[in-house]
Design a protein that fits this description.
The chain contains 17 helices and 17 strands. With 465 residues, it is of the alpha+beta class. The strands form six sheets. A five-stranded mixed sheet has the order 6-5-4-1-7. It has a three-stranded antiparallel sheet with strand order 9-10-12. Strands 13-16-17 form a three-stranded antiparallel sheet.
Length: 465
């Protein structure tokens, strides 16, 4: 949690941006795992954390723009809570730490909203993503749960996106903490990448490391030798010598800010020449993406230039035919690079995407490109100082996709399908760093995890001792 002045200022800026109305910001509630008292690990809503900072379930924040007032609704603990949880600060005491002077029990929330509605005031809320909050908002507002997204406030979404997109020094410091843990996680994975080790064992160690330094992983760990599956959460295989293990994992700081890194590791410690050829294309794409990242350029343009690096490299190896620029314009590269270059990162690993990706990653000047692969680019808009983004190019050999394109003749003038089919079983390679856009360019966040193939081999070899 930051100083209360930060939260006071954030709410004041939001009031200024919105101009009028009542802003509803529900916190998350406990979520039962298999019965009411046995809950999943609690994760507070990121919007609530940003404006109210309190990492406790069962709270509801209200920003009254017209009356220049911030309110926190929550129930104080009773004796049964104290027996199981120990003494707890009162709601008023908790609210004071984030600069909120007015508190009330949750049962009073309905009256506040009812008065606003009856008074003809606009009630603003963002689209909820958890069922419990959907039900609560539906009851408070008299809107069917299936209609909540339709009635959510675009003005509120746009105002919050404009604020949360720019990370201040305190936020960047939190992200750096998450990156430091991420570095340790990935170096550990490299050292453990030895034949016979279970994927699950490595994934479990990494998750424990994240919990020992913060609130856990920033998303479910992707760790697999079957890296052609982009988000593969299956960890059920023993590592085999000579295969490639993709590790896409990040940590969350105690302040709930994320890191998100990916490395591709040769099991046993040695890339084959075939693997190194593909790896070096992805590495060149990653370094190109970083070099092109700066204020004023669109990330969509960076993505397309990185796609060209990938296509040119694949042409040199015989996977792509013809003119490289024409191949990229046609989307031929997406057979091998079927996702976007990166996304926003902050309190969420895909920052703010609960508001709707189109509002976070795009704007009225930059719209998504409706083409396979590039359509998955989550962030396309013009970059600004203070943005924290990921840079994660990759090359994959996906059997079902190769089969589909060959059968349907998709980009047949550019693709050497026989060459592509000969790499089925190769897996995939992805290399991802976290990047801060600065006033003049960009810099990596955290110490760079070993990425040059020789350095990766050295780290893996050190784990055999």
């Amino acid at each position: 949690m930051f100083s209360k002045e930060i939260y006071i200022q954030r709410r004041a800026i939001l009031r200024q941006k919105m101009g009028s109305g009542l802003i509803l910001i529900p916190g998350n509630q406990e979520s039962p795992m298999n019965y009411t008292e046995n809950t999943y690990h609690f994760r507070q809503d990121s919007t609530f954390l940003y404006f109210f900072g309190l990492d406790l379930p069962g709270m509801f924040g209200v920003i009254d723009v017209d009356n220049n007032l911030d309110l926190l609704y929550a129930n104080d603990v009773d004796i049964e809570d104290i027996i199981w949880m120990g003494p707890q600060k009162s709601v008023a005491e908790q609210a004071f730490t984030v600069g909120v002077d007015v508190t009330a029990p949750l049962e009073k929330l309905n009256q506040t909203i009812e008065r606003a509605i009856n008074g003809g005031r606009k009630v603003h809320f963002i689209p909820p993503y958890r069922a419990a909050n959907m039900i609560q908002l539906s009851s408070l507002l008299g809107i069917k749960t299936c209609k909540l997204k339709q009635y959510s406030s675009l003005a509120l979404i746009q105002s919050i996106v404009s604020m949360r997109s720019i990370k201040d020094a305190a936020e960047i410091a939190e992200i750096e903490l998450a990156c430091a843990t991420g570095y340790e996680m990935h170096v550990t994975a490299m050292k453990m990448a030895q034949p016979g080790i279970m994927e699950q064992q490595i994934a479990g160690i990494l998750e424990g490391m994240a919990l020992s330094k913060g609130t856990g992983t920033s998303f479910p760990i992707i760790l697999t030798q079957n890296g052609e599956t982009l988000h593969n959460h299956n960890h059920s295989f023993p590592l085999e010598a000579g295969r490639l293990m993709i590790v896409d994992a990040g940590a969350e700081s105690n302040g709930h800010y994320a890191s998100d890194f990916t490395r591709t590791i040769p099991v046993g410690g040695k890339f084959s020449q075939k693997q190194k050829d593909i790896y070096n294309i992805v590495l060149a794409a990653n370094n190109t993406g970083l070099s092109l990242t700066k204020p004023g350029v669109t990330y969509q343009s960076v993505h397309l230039k990185v796609a060209r690096v990938i296509a040119a490299g694949l042409k040199d190896l015989g996977f792509i035919n013809g003119d490289v620029d024409e191949a990229v314009a046609s989307g031929a590269h997406a057979l091998f690079f079927p996702h976007g270059l990166g996304h926003m990162m902050g309190l969420d690993v895909h920052d703010m995407e609960d508001y709707g990706q189109i509002h976070v990653g795009y704007d009225s000047q930059v719209r998504p490109i409706d083409q396979f692969g590039t359509a998955y680019l989550r962030l396309g808009r013009k970059l600004e100082p203070g943005f924290v983004i990921t840079n994660e190019p990759g090359i994959y050999f996906i059997p079902a996709l190769i089969e589909k394109w060959e059968k349907e003749g998709i980009n047949k003038e550019f693709i050497n399908f026989e060459k592509a089919k000969s790499y089925i079983g190769f897996g995939g390679i992805r290399l991802e760093d976290d990047v801060l856009v600065t006033e003049t360019g960009a810099r990596l966040l955290g110490k760079r995890i070993p990425i040059d193939p020789e350095d990766v081999e050295t780290v893996v070899a050190s784990g055999r001792n």
